[in-house]
TrEMBL record:
UniProt-recorded Gene Ontology molecular function terms: methenyltetrahydrofolate cyclohydrolase activity; methylenetetrahydrofolate dehydrogenase (NADP+) activity
Residue ranges occupied by any Tetrahydrofolate dehydrogenase/cyclohydrolase NAD(P)-binding domain in the UniProt entry: 140-286
Role of this protein: Catalyzes the oxidation of 5,10-methylenetetrahydrofolate to 5,10-methenyltetrahydrofolate and then the hydrolysis of 5,10-methenyltetrahydrofolate to 10-formyltetrahydrofolate.
Pathway: One-carbon metabolism; tetrahydrofolate interconversion
Binding, NADP(+): G166, R167, S168, I232
Keyword Hydrolase attached: yes
Hydrolase is among the record's keywords: yes
EC number(s) reported in the record: 1.5.1.5, 3.5.4.9
UniProt protein name: Bifunctional protein FolD
Subunit composition and interactions: Homodimer.
Pfam family for this entry, one: THF_DHG_CYH
Classification via Gene3D superfamilies: Leucine Dehydrogenase, chain A, domain 1, NAD(P)-binding Rossmann-like Domain
Length: 293
């Protein structure tokens, strides 16, 4: 038996089309064009690709895109000044500062300076706290993408045993919070978890957000489980080139799982689609507009 492959690329395209339709309605009914500002400090090549893709997809969704590319030597004070200006700019509804930042800048200070109402990455402590306490929040994009993909297989997640491997603030913890809100029984595993393979084997829904290439083997997967692989790891392909692999050993796991996301083409494309959704949502809230049902 081979698992159903969850096509994140197609699902993300559908979500982007929904967002574009929402943007068009907002323009037509209220004359409002959502605006997303993306700030890149330095020349990290992977970040530059992400920022370019974000800008392109923002414009394709009918929104305004504001890109700020700063030199790697930009001071923290100058970056915080820019963030404050974006907070005050009514044309900017969402602000994203691309991580990682150069070593001399404290990412926590930057995230803390972003207006929580414009924090479309959902990393501000106000949004993290709102998510944890069940209040409406801007929720981190990759975790929302994971839940949307899981719901393709289980429209109602209630009662499922969910295991999240990884406890970072940007992926593991918010995924766990979202799954808890969906009434899963949630276990969070991390580098100090004992017998992590045994913990994974309990999961009806296994979310891997570890950053270790193919760590989760086929034998760690419960037969029929749904596996959501967040990992993006670049490994040598043997012929001198590099290839992307997830945190799950895909070829093994697909023999055991009921459904699985591929890497690339699974969670990855969902992240920008959810960022656009957050930007639309943030714009509506800033204008006191309810999301249409
Ligand atoms: P972090 O490095 O911040 O967190 C990794 C987590 O994995 C930590 O909680 C760590 O535990 C845990 N971990 C590490 N080793 C083990 C182990 N041997 N057993 C169990 N747990 C372990 O990574 P991120 O959360 O930022 O990212 C995770 C992965 O997701 C990466 O591959 C990243 O590239 C990818 N990613 C993909 C995105 C996308 O758009 N698809 C977006 C963001 C990330 P501890 O806390 O104990 O150290």
């Amino acid at each position: 038996m081979s698992a159903r492959i969850i096509d994140g690329k197609a699902i993300a395209a559908g979500l982007r089309a929904e967002v574009a339709a929402g943007v068009a309605r907002l323009k037509e009914s209220h004359g409002i064009t959502p605006g997303l500002a993306v700030v890149l400090v330095g020349e990290d090549p992977a970040s530059a690709v992400y920022v370019r893709n974000k800008g392109r997809q923002t414009v394709e969704a009918g929104m305004a895109s504001f890109e700020h590319r700063l030199d790697a030597s930009t001071s923290q004070a100058a970056l915080l000044d820019l963030v404050r200006r974006l907070n005050d700019d009514p044309a900017v509804n969402g602000i994203l500062v691309q991580l990682p930042l150069p070593g001399h800048i404290d990412p926590a200070a930057v995230i803390d300076t972003i207006d929580p109402a414009k924090d479309v990455d959902g990393f501000h402590v106000v949004n993290a706290g709102r998510l944890a306490t069940g209040l409406p929040a801007l929720v981190p994009c990759t975790p929302v993408g994971c839940v949307i993909l899981a719901k393709q297989v289980h429209p109602d997640l209630t009662g499922l045993e969910a295991v999240v491997v990884g406890r970072s603030n940007i992926v593991g913890k918010p995924v766990a919070q979202l799954l808890l809100a969906e009434n899963c029984t949630v276990t969070i595993a991390h580098s100090r978890t004992r017998a992590v393979a045994d913990v994974c084997r309990r999961a009806d829904l296994l979310v891997a957000a570890v950053g270790r290439p193919e760590m989760i083997r086929g034998g760690w997967v419960k037969p029929g489980a749904t596996v959501i692989d967040v990992g993006i790891n670049r490994v040598a392909a043997g012929d001198g080139t590099a290839r992307l692999v997830g945190d799950v050993a895909f070829d093994e796991a697909r023999q055991v799982a009921g459904a699985i996301t591929p890497v690339p083409g699974g969670v990855g494309p969902m992240t920008i689609a959810c960022l656009l959704r957050n930007t639309l949502e943030a714009t509506r809230r800033q204008h006191g507009l309810e999301a249409p049902g």
